[in-house]
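Forwarding the complex inputs:
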Amino acid sequence: MKKLNKNFNLLADDYLFAKVSAAVEKYKADFPQSDIISLGVGDATQPLVGKVIKACNDAAFEMSTDKFFRGYGPYDGYPFLKQAIVDYYKRRGVVIDIDDVFVTDGAKNGVGNLLDIFDSDVSVMIPDPVYPAYVDANVMAGHKIVYVEGNRGNGFLPMPSKKIKADLIYICSPNNPTGAAYTVDQLKEWVKFALDTDAIIIYDAAYEAFAEEKNIARSIYQVNGARDCAIEICSLSKIAGFTGVRCGWTVIPGGNLTNVNRMWYKRQSIKSNGTGYIVQRMAEAALKGGYDEVVKSLGVYKSNAKLITDKFKKLGMEFTGGVNSPYIWFYTGVDSWEFFDYLLKKAKIVCTPGSGFGKNCNGWIRITAFNTPARTAEAIKRFEMFWKDFIEVRGSIFKPLKK
Amino acid sequence: MKKLNKNFNLLADDYLFAKVSAAVEKYKADFPQSDIISLGVGDATQPLVGKVIKACNDAAFEMSTDKFFRGYGPYDGYPFLKQAIVDYYKRRGVVIDIDDVFVTDGAKNGVGNLLDIFDSDVSVMIPDPVYPAYVDANVMAGHKIVYVEGNRGNGFLPMPSKKIKADLIYICSPNNPTGAAYTVDQLKEWVKFALDTDAIIIYDAAYEAFAEEKNIARSIYQVNGARDCAIEICSLSKIAGFTGVRCGWTVIPGGNLTNVNRMWYKRQSIKSNGTGYIVQRMAEAALKGGYDEVVKSLGVYKSNAKLITDKFKKLGMEFTGGVNSPYIWFYTGVDSWEFFDYLLKKAKIVCTPGSGFGKNCNGWIRITAFNTPARTAEAIKRFEMFWKDFIEVRGSIFKPLKK
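Prediction (whole assembly, two chains):
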């Protein structure tokens, strides 16, 4: 077969988390007795809340009856869930219309599949560091990628510059992997820039539920004008522990973007049959009747994040995130993958090498607050001892990185 | 925004079923008291079987506990479901390997998303008539499409010809919309042709569970050599009524197609986070513990199909399908959309205009056996009266079509 997509040859060898996972599996095979704690992948560990389980059972019961059985649903999601999403925004003072909302099988599907509606010669602006799926999906499509650099200087929150333009602009806030989060005022500058340059912003709000501080944006639609230039992608994964359930949404407002909205509907009608009914009822429960439970469950991760950042402060470490975000991003001064191996070997803790998120991030490490309180506490205890030892031996056994 | 995918302008105005649905909604709004029976979309109506519901509740219970909660699953599906799929093939004497199998959110997602792994200048061969999503997904991608014609002469089962070549060959058997189904011997010719021309077959087996007659293929892998040139796509939608649950699979065998298998894995790891855990447990139950119930449920649709074809024979109509297939494809001699309107108006029956499936199918109509036995019986009663009247008035109120 000669006609395979050659862009695949340009992809990094392995998707970052697959690579981490393979390294951990190898370690487990070599040392089967090891008590490994993962602070690696940002994956929920708190069980689904009671009202979500009840919604699942109720919907399953419907599906077992002649009268209430449901086959194919709407390509863009059932109105009951679309309305629950509209109301979820409304509770935070953001107005979106029910026709703006598309239910999806998760934010990752949304981010990737959305590219179908753009031309093959579209150019994209991607922050560096960033969630690797943005880059990989665009490399796969052969798109021209320009990077805007997040770094110490800008607190990993790059701002628009007249020097760099693109047709699509990816923004992830609160950010994965750095945990940094834009204020509404900062997003105003991005919206203005997008409108001035006729670009579309793809705003990944997957971690918005962690935004706590005043002025930190939870939706790009808090900014006037965003409805004319921004697509927002979100997910129940981090709001309600749906990483293993798979449900999210995409918002493409009417108005200036009406034709984009209609193209996405068409794309979904051709390449998908919507999201399952039972899953949509579970998502509805998470945003409505079960929302108080969901918030309580989220509080567990927020406490974990505080536990970690308190310790990091005590250890005098350089880090971002942990507030407004389940991610903590810290600097080690040594090669990220070497640190990963050393942390796994010495403390049996899995982290994610920062170098996997961007070309200028060697030396940085991402850890997450998604483990259980008990395991997180245990990990922090181990980490404290580990870090003190690491600081002592760093100069002698690791090659230093230029800061 | 200038850089939108221009290929969307080449798409048919509306996805066929969306168009049918809009016409029916309009009719309902005009005549709210009408008792409309749908023999239109091929959508399950039988409730999910008991063992599938039990699997749903059991998995939901797991997700409610600290101990058994599951977050992100494997990109290619859980081994328990992949093994159940391998065993499902094995029971029919077809050997596939567990690494050949990818769990998906349904056959439609598989068919559409698979195009990501091929080059943008790939050419595709599509039978006409055919399930419209193949054509639309390829138009969207800007691919060159060549058609092989299904018609009266070949029983709507086109065979390869040296005159027409392409990089990808779509085959759907048992066929949607015509209900015609290839024998294993006929597929041998297609496999030989694909191997000779270095093409890949995308074999849509979504309706394989309806194949009953001896020698009718249920999988392309019943043919030697198919492992080196064919991708098979299947779904639980029609096997077990999963149209509203969303679960299917893609088989890409190792061997000659190993690199294609690995590219699909990479595509899925970048643009998806797999299929939900609860859904995968439901699918496992459908193929294993609940399979006897599933077969019984399928029998309902098979009886419906027999009811319809018996009546059509009695009425002396020209049709294919109804055996080995839930679809019956019949000739009316008048414009398909005019027949659709007339059938809806006179008998309150929804069908699908054959012209929506292919450029040479005007005059043909697809109906399905997916309604309940009671509604199907009622529809057939109405249809008999309708058809007798239609034959009488056809010459006077419809413009005849050239046969």
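Chain A has a mean pLDDT of 95.
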